[in-house]
Amino acid sequence: MSTPVPLLGENGGLRFDRLPPLSLYVHLPWCLRKCPYCDFNSYEARGALPDREYVDALLRDLRTELPLAQGRPVETIFLGGGTPSLFSGPAIAHLLDGLRAEADLAPNVEITLEANPGAVDAASFAMFRKAGVNRLSIGIQSFRNAQLRALGRVHDDAEAEAAVATARTAGFTNVNVDLMYGLPGDTVEGAVADLERAIALGPSHISWYQLTLEPNTAFERRPPVLPDDDVVAAIEERGRAVLAADGYERYEISAYALHGRRCRHNLNYWQFGDYLGIGAGAHGKVTSLPAAEIARRAKTRNPRTYLQRAGTAQATSEERIATRAQAALEYLMNALRVLEGTTLETFEAHAGQPAEAIGAARAAAIARGWLGAEPHRLRATPAGIEKLNRLLELFA
Ligand SMILES: C[S@@+](CC[C@H](N)C(=O)[O-])C[C@H]1O[C@@H](n2cnc3c(N)ncnc32)[C@H](O)[C@@H]1O
Ligand code: SF4
After folding, report:
1. Given ligand 2 and candidates 33, 35, 155, which is best to mutate, with the most ligand atoms within 8 Å of its CB?
2. Residue 42 near ligand 2, beta carbon < 6 Å
3. Residue 285 dihedral angles phi and psi, to the nearest 5°
4. What is the Å distance from ligand 2's center to 389 Cα?
5. Which stretches within 246-317 are classed as H helix?
6. Contact indicator for 232, 238 with CB cutoff of 8 Å
7. pTM tops 0.70, yes or no
């Protein structure tokens, strides 16, 4: 008997009939100071930033990535960090001009830049806006100065409020505020007061994260005393009610938006869309139709090494998602974070397999009450969201 010849476009049981939408993540790795809870690939800036040199490296990196776009326009761009607002206005303008010159950007491209209230400059904000940034994400974390000190932040509450005002003056109408709860010394009243001060500033989006102790951080080595689970549960209950009362709809575990203001970039991640990643330590995920595979790509993490290697093969490492089970699990780890879930049709297109491939696990999750029983949708119930890791284990 002859060996079966694989069908073109099939590999490890994966098969793709179309490519998902494409985003671009750009990592800018420097901060004024490293926060003790943070495990992002970020480094304290010592002396002047090599921002022009770094932007040139990013554009070299982009040129090597662009064939992976396979003809798709870039729908969203996220300049994340680190603290991208430390970069000068001209450096960000040079970066965005370069992206526009090299890549095909969708006409309504969403371009987000992350800012820290300790790195705010009115003239730079105005230049970011003029250069094409149309969404600003400000890392405030808390408006309580005791908590800000405990978190090792470089700013106080007045600077946090001023950052949002500066963003508005610069012409930003789409502004996200990052806050955290479950902080050292946290109380229900304090955490709710943080939300109320954020809401009073009228951002279009609030990301409200529970503080987690991450490996290889100063907080892991010397953990602060954090509030008990019942206090955290009460903070979540009260906080979500306050956000909802002011029109901030919870659409993902930690994301709340006014109508029409969901973060399109993060939604593409959560729907297992594709993204190119450029910059030190940036990650990308790219589907290939002819090879019928998903590649995960990562750039070298150290900024100095990255500056030397960007644009060469040594800057990138790659792993392949090779099986249906792995693709399905990774899809669901993302998609079930979104409260309205996704359609089975999107699952089939982006995870490269028929819905029947996860039929048994899906039935088990529905039987436990963790997935809704809707015929065309994969949606975690509130109980499923609470027990997301156990729900995902059914698909592992
Ligand atoms: C990469 S930071 C970008 C913002 C900017 N660097 C800043 O901190 O002002 C993204 C956000 O992740 C959140 N974050 C970082 N570490 C966290 C942790 N250990 N637990 C929960 N949220 C965290 C913070 O809210 C932070 O604003
Ligand atoms: S400023 Fe943001 S990215 Fe930088 S260390 Fe702090 S939390 Fe991490």
Report:
1. 35
2. yes
3. -140, 120
4. 27
5. 264-270, 303-309
6. no
7. yes
d(CA 183, ligand 1 centre) in Å: 13
Burial of 258 (0-12, 13-18, 19+ CB in 10 A): middle
User: pLDDT (tens digit, 9 = 90+) per residue, 170-190?
Assistant: 999 999 999 999 999 999 999
Q: Which atom of ligand 1 is nearest to the CA of 38?
A: 16
- Average pLDDT on 251-275 reads 98
Closest ligand to residue 220's CA: 1
Among 201, 210, 186, CA closest to 248:
201
Alpha carbon nearest to ligand 2 atom 6, residue: 35
Question: Closest-lying ligand to the alpha carbon of 42?
Answer: 2
For residues 209 and 213, what is the distance between their CA atoms, to the nearest angstrom?
Answer: 12
**β-strand partners of 298:** 283, 317
Q: Which residue has the tokens 């300049």?
A: 79
379 touches 340 (CB < 8 A): yes
